[in-house]
Amino acid sequence: MIGLAWRMAWRELRAGDLVVLLAAVAVAVAALASVTLLGDRTGRALESRARELLAADLVINADHVPRAGLAAAAGRYRLETGLTATLPSMAFAGGMPQLVTLKGVSANWPLRGEVTLGDGASRHSGRQAPASGTAWADPRLLNRLGLKVGDTLSLGDRAFRLAAVLEREPDGALDLYNFVPRVIINQADLPSTGLLQEGSRVRWRLLLAGKPADVAAFAASVRPGLARGERIEDIREARPEIRSALERASRFLGLTALAAVCLAAAAVALAARHWLMRQTRAAAVLSTLGATYRLRLLVFGGQLALVAFGASLLGLLAGGLTQSLLAAQLTAWSGAALPPAGIGTWLLAPAIGVVLVAGFALPPLLALIRTPAMAALRAGLSTSTSGRLAGGMALAALAWLAWVAIGDAGLAAWGLGGFVVFMAVVWLVVRSLLALLVRLPARGVGFRYGLGLLGRRPWLASLQAGALAVGTMALLTVAVVRGDLLDAWQRQLPVDAPNRFAINIQPEQRAPFAASLRTLGLGTPEIAPMARARLLAIDGRPIRADQYPDERARNLAEREFNLSWRPGVPASNRITAGEYWTAATAGKPAFSVETGLANTLGIRLGSRLAFDVAGRRVEAPVTSLREVRWDSFQVNFFVLASPGLLDDTPASYVSSFYLPAAAVKPFERASTAFSNVTVVDVSAILAEVRALIDRLAQVIEFLFLFTLAAGGITLLAATVATQAERTRDAVLLRTLGATRRQLVAVLMAEFVWLGVLAGTLAAAGASTLAMVLGRQALDVDIGVNPWLFVHGVAMAGGAALLAGAWAVSRVLNRPPARKLREIAVDS
Fold first, then answer.
1. Which is nearest to 534 in space by CA: 561, 552, 553?
2. What secondary structure does DSSP assign to 223-283, as a single string?
3. Helix (H) or strand (E) holding 117
4. Which of 64, 149, 336, 638 has CA 20 to 30 A from 622's CA?
């Protein structure tokens, strides 16, 4: 039976009857395989390199120097300890400044993993730390400052000899957002730089390594007694921001793949039913010759199984190639190669193809083999109760495929439901537009009959338009809308908006720093005080991170705040509730809180907040709530204190200012007098953000090609399914005297209208999505881009015309007698 099924399947493929089904399954498998393989590889990379990401087995991360008691406790559990301190700083070489991430490491760093160094001639890896008075820098710093091994690099008050090029550090791997050059020095040299001052943003990490049981016992013993600002990181929590980012990206890519799978599933259902309807005569002959139910199931089901297996192999090949290209992109961005995917993930692809075919082809297959011979010859497929009940398999198959694509049952249900709702809206819109268009005055044969052909099959026209619209909208969103969003975001900034932030300005440097800016013609910028503080209580209730279910709220509860004090409302702030202090009330203790922070932490007007400021408890009521325009790039704070409340608090100062291109070099020379002041180039950050979005867009565009391909195949499947009816119309028109030219105009007009409808829907959907994202994500107003409609109609129309050209050629390039025989067979 396998040989017979193979010969029949090969004959059907050569005749072209199973090609659409093969292509639909292959596209669905390729889309899902690329996402699942890439997700498996990134997950394995995080697991296999978790200890390297920590440079230890366990880390205590703190915003202060780790307590001596922690190291002593580690010694009792026979654990090795190390220490690192990381902070942003300015590096100078030859009078040129550069923002860097400075790390001081202990002599035994790293406890796990290896650091790789180069000196221009060779490379060596191992467990090593810089000697006193020397520094290691990554290639980016060398390129930007024109340095080489042996040159001098200034950090704060200390000069260091550049001893090696830092090619790889274990706890810097897979840092997708690390665009600042890195410098490593010996931990013992860090105090001599003078950079450890009030307001310095230092992150301390106590590294621990030992036997797994000892590490677990130590963590269990110290976890209950951790102080504020201290947290434990283990191999399961290594770089949670990276894991979270990858998980979100994986879910988004899964939703992208789900759109392709849903469209491909519709194509499978159409193609399978059309092919099985054409097998009714063969099924009737087998039944007449005495073929049993099991034999007929093996013959026709075997052909579908062979197609599913072959399409799965093709899809696996395409998906494997796609994920290899995407993995290469990730490797280029992160500098860390991804391990190969597990064999189980590779074996998932054939299962995807089988489930897709079984779920959407089994109902018509059961109807075919259950239909008696005479009934099959008279009416085609049966619609028995068992066949209709088997249709539930389609929904079950789609649900399983959605779960495979996304990995989250809840999100999969939302994604699948959203797709169904979108297609329902498309169906209503297409029905309404067709009902309106057919009432318009008719001009030309093509115009009138093209609309008539679509109007006779509204459900199929809706499916075709929806399939094309989904694919086209996906590409429009990535190719056009992302640029509109970023351009609108940047256009709302004034030309002279601040593009530099200066932090860690000491009190005695305020006047000299402001004078240096005035000398350069940059005016007098605002220099605001800033004190580090930790929120202790709200209305007398102590703050605990575990009392907040939201992750952002937990992070805010654990983090240190930057408090400032101002006599008046900052220019980029707006009071939304309460009253800001005035000259008459400025002496009264009070806080003003940003509305977003207040909503997240449950702070209300009148709430009494308690902060720990440099070891001193400071309490005051909230007298006003503020809306802050963070994208103004002015100096803004979550919490402002009334004048006088924090006057005796040790503080550093922060400023923002606009630095034109012509003043960059003079400013860099002048800034050497303030070696401890860190200057952040916001324009460079914006450029990096745009570059990162472009990189992600390239990945998404690549996967959206599967969505467009699935939409095209669905259009083709629907075209094939209506080919017999289209041929019958052509024969009737030729009988009534229509010329070949008129016939082409009539048939092509159907696809032209289909492309116009799909392109318009795609552009409308992309415009709506842009407006929602602009308002919700970037707080900008996005207008309707008329070019979206031009691009949408062009893309969808081009795809529809290709399908139309193929359909017209099959109708016109066959003899009339053959057309009549095909009509008789399909009927």
1. 561
2. GGGPPTTEEEEETTSSSHHHHHHHHHHHHHHHHHHHHHHHHHHHHHHHHHHHHHHHTHHHH
3. strand 115-118
4. 64
Q: How far apart are CA 757 and CA 752, in angstroms?
A: 9
Quick one: DSSP state of residue 663? G
Asked if pLDDT for residue 825 goes beyond 80, the answer is: no
Closest CA to 218 of 208, 206, 230: 208
pLDDT of 772 > 90? The answer is no
Q: Encoding tokens for residue 699?
A: 């990945």
Handedness of CA 406, 408, 412, 415 (dihedral sign): negative
Q: Beta partners for 154?
A: 92, 159
544-577 tens-digit pLDDT: 877 777 666 776 777 778 899 988 899 889 999 9
Do the Cβ atoms of 594 and 638 come closer than 8 Å?
A: yes
| Three-state DSSP state, 534 | strand
CA 434 to mean position of chain CA atoms: 37
Query: How far is the C-alpha of 593 from the C-alpha of 606, rounded, in Å?
Result: 11
- For the chain, the C-alpha Rg in angstroms (whole number) is 34
Within 8 A by CB and 6+ apart from 29, the residues are 311, 312, 314, 315, 316, 319, 349, 352, 353, 356
DSSP label at 481? Answer: I
Nearest to 205 by CA among 96, 287, 87: 87
Q: Which residues contact 353 (CB under 8 A, 6 or more apart)?
A: 25, 28, 29, 308, 309, 311, 312, 315
Taking alpha carbons only, the member of 86, 100, 199 closest to residue 154 is: 100
Beta bridge partners of 641: 565, 591
What does pTM read for this prediction? Answer: 0.59
Q: Which residue has the tokens 């008050």?
A: 157
Average pLDDT over residues 294-312: 82
Cα distance between residue 565 and residue 593, in whole Å: 12
Helix (H) or strand (E) holding 562: strand 561-565
Alpha-carbon distance of 76 to 73, in angstroms, equals 5
Amino acid at 810: R
Closest-CA residue to 729 (of 810, 803, 804, 811): 811
The gap from C-alpha 412 to its chain's centroid, in whole angstroms, comes to 16
User: d(Cα 32, Cα 400) in Å, to the nearest integer?
Assistant: 12
SS3 116: strand
In this prediction, residue 827 carries a pLDDT of 47
Residue 162 has pLDDT above 80, yes or no: yes
Separation between Cα atoms, residue 640 and residue 530, nearest integer Å: 10
Q: Is the pLDDT of residue 140 over 90?
A: no
Q: b/e per residue, 120-140, with b = 16+ CB within 10 A?
A: eeeeeeeebbbeeebbbbbeb
CA distance 826 to 729: 14
Q: Three-state SS for 448?
A: helix
**243 versus 77: which is more confidently predicted?**
77
Is a pLDDT exceeding 80 seen at residue 817? Answer: no
Distance CA(188)–CA(166), nearest Å, equals: 19
Whether residue 110 is preceded by a cis peptide bond, meaning omega within 30 degrees of 0, is yes
Does residue 660 sit in helix, strand or coil? coil
> Is 5 a residue whose pLDDT tops 60?
yes
Q: Are 55 and 110 in contact (CB under 8 A)?
A: yes
Predicted confidence at residue 335, as pLDDT, reads: 55
Rounded to 5°, angle at Cα 532 from 527 and 534: 145
Q: Which amino acid is at 188?
A: A
Distance CA 34, CA 31 (A): 5
User: Would you tell me the crossing angle of helices 723-735 and 682-721 to the nearest 10 degrees?
Assistant: 60
**Segment among 133-142, 409-418, 425-434 with least mean pLDDT:** 409-418
Find the mean pLDDT for residues 57-61: 87
Contact between 104 and 186 under an 8 Å Cβ cutoff? The reply is yes
List Cβ neighbours of 88 (8 Å cut-off, separation of 6 or more).
99, 100, 101, 102, 180, 201, 503, 678, 680
At residue 333, the 3 state secondary structure works out as: helix
